[in-house]
Amino acid sequence: MINKLILDSSSQDSVFQLRDTLSKEIYPIVKSGRPIIILCIGTDRSTGDSLGPLVGDKLNFLIRDRVFLYGSLKNPVHAKNLTNTINEVNNKFKNPFIIAVDACLGSIQNVGKIIVEGKPLKPGSAMNKDLPEIGDLSITGIVNISGAMEFMVLQNTRLFTVMQIVDVIYKGLYHSILKTIGGKKYNNDFNDNLIQNANA
Fold it and tell me: What is the CA radius of gyration of the chain?
């Protein structure tokens, strides 16, 4: 399980780094038969907090056997329905592997960075909200600087910064799923090269 990986969303190879990292994490999960849940947290009512729903929106077409998505612009997962969504996932799926995606605030030099960790994320921490931790693996995008007036900071975050991070996260997730699971039809007969690449 990955400890911690920090990527720069403005770097040209960030998508490939994220793809390869996620592939190594996802491959044994696929082999074990566990369902993969991509949980994109946030709201479209705030620019800075829209990262999760935007990623979810771009990944809508990715849904296939053993891969399920929660959170999009149309049906966001946010503070008011997060607990119910987690309960729904746990009731509907047996031992799901949850990849949680969310925005966060950080230091000025880290704005635009993406953090991938093999542990749950704590949604709403920037807003001092007491929400349950979620995820076997977390992907967070640092969209703006932390400090005072977090609500205003999120509201006044540049959409360009958010979209740059969104593009890396969704492409990394998409290509890691293609690399480990393949196309729409789930196939148990993995290509040897695919397996080797996933384990490389």
Answer: 16
Q: What is the DSSP letter of 131?
A: -
Closest residue by Cα to residue 40 from 24, 60, 22? 60
Whether the predicted pLDDT of 174 surpasses 50: yes
Give me 81's structure tokens: 């329905």
- Give residue for tokens 């880290």: 110
Report the SS3 class of residue 105. strand
From residue 28, alpha-carbon distances to 31, 43, 196 in Å are 5, 32, 12
Average pLDDT of the chain is 87
Cα of 50 vs its chain's centroid, Å:
13
CA distance 129 to 75: 21
> What does the alpha-carbon distance between residue 184 and residue 71 come to, in Å, rounded to a whole number?
20
Strands 137-145 and 36-40 turn out to be unpaired
* pTM recorded for the entire structure: 0.87
d(CA 82, CA 156): 24
How many angstroms separate the CA atoms of 121 and 133, rounded? 6
- Domains along the chain with CATH numbers: 4-193 (3.40.50.1450)
